[in-house]
Amino acid sequence: MSRYELNMTDGKIWSVLLAFTWPLLLENLLQLLYYTADSVIVGRYVGVSALAAVSATTHICGMLVRFFNGTATGAGVVISRAFGANDREKLSQSVKTALILTFIGCVILTLIGVTLSRFFLERMSTPPDVIGEADIYLRIYFGGISGLLFYNIGGAILRAMGDTKRPLFFLIVCSALNIFLDLAFVKIGWGIAGVAIATITAQALSACLVIRSVIRSAGLSHEWRIDSEIAREILRIGLPFGVQMAVVAFSNVFVQGYINVFGTACIAGWGVYVKLDQYMMLPIQSMGQAVTVFTGQNLGAGKHGRAVSGTWTALGMMLGISSAISLTLCVNAPVMSSFFSPDSGVIRYGSMFIRMCTPVAVICCFNNILAGYLRGDGNSRTPMIITLCTHVFFRQIYLFVITRIITDNVYAVGFGYPAGWILCALSMTLYYFYWQKKRASTFIEKA
Known about the structure:
By secondary structure, the chain is an all-alpha fold. It has helices at residues 13-45, 48-56, 58-84, 88-123, 128-143, 145-160, 165-187, 191-218, 228-260, 264-300, 304-331, 333-340, 344-361, 364-376, 381-405, 410-414, 416-446. Helices cover 86% and strands 0% of the residues.
């Protein structure tokens, strides 16, 4: 076993969970700051229209890339089980299959992005003064999207073997390179095209570094082929999560439409809350990913009881941590809102949304941790269905109905997020206990 790999089938549960989670949390935080830095550089050194062009591409990039990133979770579950069972042959073949599937995905996504970028932008009613630069950015971005996808699948493979440190290190190096190239290319007059080129260059380097580590860690031979059974298992687990991530990202566009009715200050205040909410969700989502790998490794090793104990240990830790973060945000809501804008209206709306939503967001620990266990146990479809029903369909129905019953009330609209979280937590918890009862009866029948 490599010194970077973490066997999660032994040792104190809280200790191995934290050892896995903290580098992953830093990696996710760095990725969030990575894209923030791009926007800051574009806005300050290229211009408002270029910043708007980058912003206009966010939902398009997010939907397609999140779909493939979610699918990579399926590979992580399959590989973590082989790693936990110490089945090196299956581990090697699973890694090869995942990488070949990623190559196919790269070809598909590149063709879709490069040929249909203008079509997507037109369907989103992108303004004429923005669409030209946005189209340039998208075409270059998707022309080099392979680097991002290979980095993500490589990172998922390493994390499935308990290695969260090397993906973090590679991301630190490439983030620094991206910022340096952003500034250099903008200074020589390449504008928004230079920012896109800087991004895909840094992503290509990160992909090379992580795939090199994967090949060494998994001991891959020169015989490469897709194992059809493993491919089906990867897609069975990964596709539902990919669809979930893409659809949820897309549905947020419609939520924004309801907020836009209340004017510029409200829109900006909502934007402040959404930015801060992302930072609150990072530890919860990171621990959810840790639970998926922890569950996969322990079930692969035949340690069902340890997998269950790990789930509740993770849930307890995250309830405490997220409650502390929520309290900090609520107490300091006006100060944090003022970081984004000195406007009194923005501060008022930002503080209102923070104090209304973040206390309820604590229950997202149930959503992410329990879903993480289910995915690690090979059940990715049900968490997808629950999340889509509560975060997308219920939320849209709620907003449609509430805006007709209670008109001109931003509080009612803003509560759409917490309402979906509450319903999701209740549904996910009930299903988790049902799943454990079903699993227990299966063990009894086999015995």
